Amino acid sequence: PHMTIRENLEFGLKIRKMPQADIDKLVNEAAEILGIAHLLERKPKQLSGGQRQRVAVGRAITRKPSVFLFDEPLSNLDAKLRVQMRAEISKLQNRLKTTTVYVTHDQVEAMTMGHRIAIMKDGKLQQVGTPLEVYETPANLFVAAFIGTPPMNFVKAAVADGGGALKAGTFSLPVPASLRPLVAGKDGKAVVVGIRPENVVDPSKPTRGETTRLTATVEVIEPLGHEVLVYARLGGDDLVVAKVDPHRTPAYDAKVELVVELDALHLFDAATERRLAA
């Protein structure tokens, strides 16, 4: 016969031959924390996906481990439940203060839950840092492309004018004073310019730092309610995603002016794919 939820939660402790009074205390405490106290006499098949997930977490909590290892715990839940469980696990971690190693392919999960993120590619560590560090100073192209939704725009370019400009296929970007030291005197060097969609905006938006304007042709429009993502072609292969105001949504195939916040550019070496450092 299948075990009840209570028996599931007790299992690891019984194997350790713990006194029943202690077991009851730990199980009730874990069930209370996870909001499953009213389900203890049920069988797993009578529970929803999210409730089963909590039972699994409960089994770990009752053992009072020094480290939790979560391996993609939310991947088989539906979107709404995932968001809910994400918040629950964060609250739990905050309350128990147990070191938690959390494996996920979902970068939103990593950004929202992690105090520090370690980004892996093919088994090699690419970068470790706080969510903001990894977002603002990605170590290489892989990290830059992986963190952030929608992903960062990338444009292949070459350094020109003694480091004053970045020449792409059909257009060129001025290099702001803040980034000059990275490319000074490196004419002809092949780079990849990264720019996040929130730093490519319509001209009505207030901007920060040095800017430049580009003309592009609208190819795809994705309304999200509070903002609209516009995929626009700058000529040749260069496509950028911009964030625009929903009340200023352009038409398909329209020519639009986009403002690029130059101080927010990320520069990567085209050969090594590493972030350029002065």
What does this structure look like?
The chain is an alpha+beta fold. 29% of the residues lie in helices and 28% in strands. Strands 7-6-5-8-14 form a 5-stranded antiparallel sheet. The protein has a 5-stranded antiparallel sheet with strand order 9-13-10-11-12, with no helix packed on it. A hairpin with a 4-residue loop joins strand 5 (153-160) and strand 6 (165-167).
User: Between the first and last Cα atoms, what is the distance in angstroms?
Assistant: 66 Å
> In order across it, which strands form the biggest sheet?
7-6-5-8-14
- The structural class is alpha+beta
Low-confidence stretches: none
Q: What's the mean pLDDT score?
A: 93
Q: In terms of quaternary structure, what is this?
A: single chain
Characterize the overall form. elongated
Which sequence of SSEs, written as H and E, runs from N to C?
HHHEHEHEEHHEEEHEEEEEEE
Largest sheet: 5 strands, antiparallel
The helix content, as a percent range, equals 25-40%
Tally of helical runs: 8
Tally of strands: 14
Beta fraction of the residues?
25-35%
Radius of gyration: 25 Å
In brief:
By secondary structure, the chain is an alpha+beta fold. The chain contains eight helices and 14 strands. β5 and β6 form a beta hairpin.
